[in-house]
């Protein structure tokens, strides 16, 4: 790597750098006493006030009531609480509801949570998706009056595709009596997300995808929706999630979602411009390149690019040596030899899935990052192809 070359972080869908303003909001609770919010003394009351202020910030960003927000340790716990806790509560209320449905493009946090319900006697249904990774016209044939819960991702973490018909899907699913959950982990902080407008019962998010700290997430639980807690505890979070609240993380989550909400429009326009310039440059420089889900609604932050004749992990390593951080799909599966299940669901072959890189942009991305990527990526692809041909 050239000592003067700018290091490029193009993996914001894996995690984002902590926003300096978020750190400043967290600092008093990192350096001072972050007391137990359940304690009745003055430090405990101060901690409770900070937690409730953050709860209000999250609720305001989603267009819901503070009492409908449950704090969690992150997106995975929020998804698990929604899927496992929501399905079990729905079946408890109506024993005939023994089916759980989820799309073929769900994050592993949702898919694995659903699979864990099979030993409990639930039938699982995988909803087919189209080439963009969103439910197709026939999706509703997979739902019926036996469905306890259905989970549909709002914005795909690998391709950035947004399911802009979620509101319609939700209305039809709820008309059948199903509880509807959406994994909005990649969407919140990048595009407007209003849980009321979407009509969902449960919605998961996490702070570190939009400039907040790791280890802090939340689940929206619509008033009246039943939820079985995953772990017994002291009754925190209105009995829905036991355990002492992570005051520092929750304060950071509140600050991050507040900042992201104020910057939403301007950042979306800026990042769309960076992404589009990057994609146009790649298409002009790399023969045979394809970009997944390029048609239709997408997050402004992601490019999922197929480089035929290469192995993505080889490209990731080559770019890493040049100080450029990208990924071969979801960070949750980095280092595995299995092709991306999401890309396979989109109709891609295993070899195509293994030849796909994900570039994702965020608050710290700049025009010079795109310049570096457009210089380095085509060169790395050509070298990889030459090595295969040799």
Give a verbal description of the structure.
This protein starts with 7 loop residues before the first strand and ends with a helix. 39% of the residues lie in helices and 13% in strands. The chain has a seven-stranded mixed sheet with strand order 2-8-7-6-5-3-4, with helices on both faces. A three-stranded antiparallel sheet has the order 9-10-12. The mean pLDDT is 94. Helix 2 runs parallel beside helix 7 and helix 7 packs across helix 11. Strand 5, helix 5 (166-175) and strand 6 form a beta-alpha-beta unit. It is an alpha/beta fold.
At a glance:
This protein has helices at residues 20-31, 42-62, 75-93, 108-115, 166-175, 195-198, 247-285, 312-320, 341-345, 350-353, 367-389, and strands at 8-9, 69-72, 99-103, 123-127, 147-151, 179-183, 202-206, 217-221, 290-291, 302-306, 324-325, 356-360. It has 390 residues and is an alpha/beta fold.
């Amino acid at each position: 790597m050239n000592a003067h070359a700018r290091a490029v972080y193009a993996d914001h869908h894996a995690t984002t750098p902590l926003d300096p303003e978020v750190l400043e909001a967290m600092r008093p609770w990192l350096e001072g006493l972050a007391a137990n919010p359940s304690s009745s003394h003055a430090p405990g009351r101060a901690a409770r006030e900070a937690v409730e202020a953050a709860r209000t910030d999250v609720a305001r960003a989603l267009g819901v009531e503070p009492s409908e927000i449950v704090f969690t340790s992150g997106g995975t716990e929020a998804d698990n609480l929604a899927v496992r806790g929501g399905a079990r509560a729905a079946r408890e209320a109506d024993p005939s509801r023994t089916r759980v449905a989820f799309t073929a493009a769900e994050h592993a946090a949702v898919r694995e949570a659903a699979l864990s319900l099979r030993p409990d006697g639930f039938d699982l249904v995988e909803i087919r998706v189209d080439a963009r990774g969103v439910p197709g016209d026939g999706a509703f044939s997979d739902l019926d009056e036996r469905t306890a819960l259905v989970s549909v991702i709002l914005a795909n973490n690998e391709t950035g595709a947004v399911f802009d018909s979620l509101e319609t899907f939700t209305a039809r699913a709820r008309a059948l009596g199903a509880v509807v959950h959406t994994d909005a982990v990649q969407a919140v902080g990048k595009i407007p997300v209003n849980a009321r407008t979407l009509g969902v019962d449960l919605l998961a998010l996490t702070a570190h995808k939009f400039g907040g700290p790791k280890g802090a997430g939340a689940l929206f639980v619509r008033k009246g929706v039943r939820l079985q807690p995953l772990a017994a505890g002291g009754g925190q979070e209105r009995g829905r999630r036991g355990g002492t609240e992570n005051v520092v993380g929750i304060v950071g989550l509140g600050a991050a979602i507040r900042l992201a909400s104020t910057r939403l429009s301007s950042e979306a326009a800026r990042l769309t411009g960076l992404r589009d310039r990057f994609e146009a440059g790649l298409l002009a420089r790399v023969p045979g390149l394809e970009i997944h889900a390029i048609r239709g609604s997408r997050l402004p932050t992601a490019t999922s690019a197929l480089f035929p004749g290469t192995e993505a992990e080889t490209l990731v390593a080559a770019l890493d040596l040049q100080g450029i951080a990208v990924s071969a799909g979801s960070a949750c599966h980095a280092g595995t030899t299995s092709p991306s299940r999401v890309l396979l669901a989109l109709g891609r072959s295993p070899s195509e899935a293994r030849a796909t890189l994900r570039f994702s942009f965020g608050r710290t991305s700049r025009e010079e990052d795109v310049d570096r990527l457009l210089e380095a990526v085509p060169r790395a692809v050509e070298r990889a192809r030459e090595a295969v041909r040799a």
